[in-house]
Amino acid sequence: MRAVVYSRVSTEEQDPKGQLTVILDYCKRKGYEVVKVFEENISGAVNPFDRPVFKQMLEYIKSNPVDVVVMHDITRFYRPPPDQVHQALALLKRVMDECNVLVEFVSEPEIEDPLMSELWKFLKSWISSYERVQISLRTKY
Asked: I want to staple 99 with a disulfide (CB 3.0 to 4.6 A). Which of 55, 61, 70, 125 is the partner?
């Protein structure tokens, strides 16, 4: 399978190399051919479809044969506001539908059952949005 990798960090002080190492090892174990790596430095609170590098990745996927997008975890994809947790799953579905690709998260458990998988993603989205609020509160203090 042909894969693209998307890695995101929030601050200049963070180093995406740790994520990339884990992701590339995962791809190697799965037998994926990594055709392109996209790295972005932007807040997880920004809608993925509004991020410059994420948009570049989508354009690449639409014009090149790609089977799967691999990210470290769902928080690298999006940290929605607490009242919009469902939006993370809707955006994830949009990527898969519009680009005809799978999206895999390296640090997530592999859940075969599609309904349980959706539930897990919803829970992770809720947790990441809660974490976003906590980070904001700590920054204010």
From this structure: 61
